[in-house]
Amino acid sequence: MSIESAIEAIRKFHGDSLTESLSRLEEDIIGASAADSLEYCFERKIDDDFVASALAVKKVAGEINIIIHASGILHSLKDILKKGEVVQSVSLGAGNTGRKFDLETNLQVAEFKFIDWKGGAESIRQNGLFKDFYQLAEYDTKKAKNLYVVGTHYPLKFLNGGRALTSVLSKQPAIYKGISDKYGSTIKVVRDYYEIHKGSVGVIDISPYIGRV
What global pTM score does this model have? Predict the structure, then answer.
């Protein structure tokens, strides 16, 4: 069964509400014998193919973030590359796979964050965003340095905010030490660091380039 067919089968099983669909199934199956359950599942196409298709979709879904990251970068290149600009290296998988940045061209280095920001408690996402901003900010190059995000409102709100660096970098002690050693104890919250480097690192909305206008 193809992924498309598998998704369609799961959609039908899900119905308008998975909770309601499961509730009906639970009620229907009460009192069923082995023969009854076989007939019940046969009528609803709950068979080996269906279970296998659900497992196949689960496997793909487990890697969906990597797929979004890779396809998002590739699809956006047609819009973010300027005339005469060419790709020198790209990292499409999880992490940077030995490369410094997600994208390096003859004109820019860049990181990409394909995150739908909600504006709530997003500390883990914020931590990752700050790490990418830091790595771009501290990189010694004459090329442009860009951080591409899906919508700039919440990322910029965070970068201009007062969250303590001790919190943001609690799992990145080397980065925290690097900032403390270089800038001293006056750099205590995110906006302190952002103010220093906001002119050298662009935070750019990639939404128009990935069909998210």
Answer: 0.80
